[in-house]
Amino acid sequence: MTTTTHPPGHRPARGPVRQLERALAPDLARGSMLLLIALANAAVFTFGDQPGAEASPHGWERPFNLAMFVFVHARAYPMFAVMFGYGLVQLARRQDAQGTGPRAARSVLLRRNTWLLAFGAVHAALLNFGDFLGAYGLVGIAFTLVLLRRGERVQRIVLWLWGCTAGYVAVLAGVAVYRATGSGPGSAPVPAQDVDSLSAPDYAASVVDRLGEWPLHTLTVLPFILIVWLGAWAARRGVLENPARHRTLLVRTAVISLAIAFAGGAPIGLVSAGLLHVDGPTVDVFLLLYEVSGQFGGPGYVALFGLLALRINRARASTAAPAGPPFARPAPRAGLVVNALASLGQRSLSGYLFQSLVWVLVLSPFALDLAGRTGSPTLTAALTAALAWSVTVLGAWLLQRRGLPGPAEKLLRRLTYGPRPRR
């Protein structure tokens, strides 16, 4: 029997993350937050514009609009950007631990992000103009080439940038308060941007529209590299792998970041709910505050799920049988709900793409047009989002029980690592 040896730095690339290497917090966060992504996208498809909200809300629609601007719109997707940056560092570390060398690790990252860009182009053309996969691919390529291997001094710059952003939010909040209290009453609505592909008369026309909309949308969201960078900074410290060690950081991040995000979305949310009436220039300030403060929802939600995972892990450990040597004790199991949500988190790409398919089939005017056939578009959007997300949770749980990856994850891994990834 012969043994193949490889010189240091020339070993074959390692395959994707193994099940035992996974931390609970990232998977739980992605699986849970896909519900907020579903609510945001279903609303956009229902109303045919961005950000997607009932222009003349009544009754329960008022608090619903408020909640969407405070907790969901422009606040959910930054969490995935943080996790994307976290994953870039984790992937590079797995390759480094394999001894493949920096060049091989960079090759794997570039290949994966290039294919992610291709996924985004197809997703946008066929289903959803608001695709983020393409932007992730571009940001991933840029981050791999420019920032991934830089030293600690460079990495700390991202903390200063976030500090400056927090200061900018404080200034905007002061201007918003001044405008709200100093200007006279008005009746300006929340500005809405119509999306041609969402009102197209047929599917072919919607594809043509999306091909023109996607590049511009991708360019507008590329600045979230700052959020990705923060996720990479957290990954270098293993914040989510060892939440107990970083509990103080997680608590402070959750409290401060979510306070900024939620408070920053409240003014425009009150306008959308019809509970606050101001003039046009004041609404513009509210909208800018809402957009800038929303990125703090990313680290805030991640920290919140890190603390939740810490609590779950401690509860699981406390219920483990104390008798017998450690190797003989049964492995603690998370509850069914936690397992199902984490299963979806491991298959979040498939869940995200499935959601887009549902929006096209169920909400498009040239398809079932469910929102146009009901008396309450807001209710239709909310129920459709909840149902679509629930189906993905169930599907992911069933795949997990059989030890199978999501179809999109399987394809991306095959394209990235080859047909038989080496372990």
Outline the structure in words:
By secondary structure, the chain is mainly alpha-helical. Helix content is 68%, strand content 1%. The protein has helices spanning 24-47, 61-72, 77-98, 102-126, 133-146, 152-155, 157-182, 203-221, 225-236, 247-272, 280-294, 297-318, 336-346, 348-363, 370-373, 377-401, 407-417, and strands at 49-50, 193-194. It has a two-stranded antiparallel ribbon with strand order 1-2. Helix 1 (24-47) runs antiparallel to helix 16. The longest helix has 26 residues, at 157-182. The model is unreliable at 1-9 and 323-332 (pLDDT under 50).
Key words describing this protein structure:
423 residues; mainly alpha; two-stranded antiparallel sheet; 17 helices; 2 strands; 68% helix; disordered N terminus
Estimated helix fraction: 55-70%
Q: Report the uncertain regions.
A: 1-9, 323-332
Placed side by side, the strands forming the largest sheet appear as: 1-2
Average pLDDT, rounded to a whole number, is 90
Tell me the number of strands.
Answer: 2
- Report the sheet-strand fraction: under 5%
Head-to-tail CA distance between termini = 20 Å
Question: Order of helices and strands, N to C?
Answer: HEHHHHHHEHHHHHHHHHH
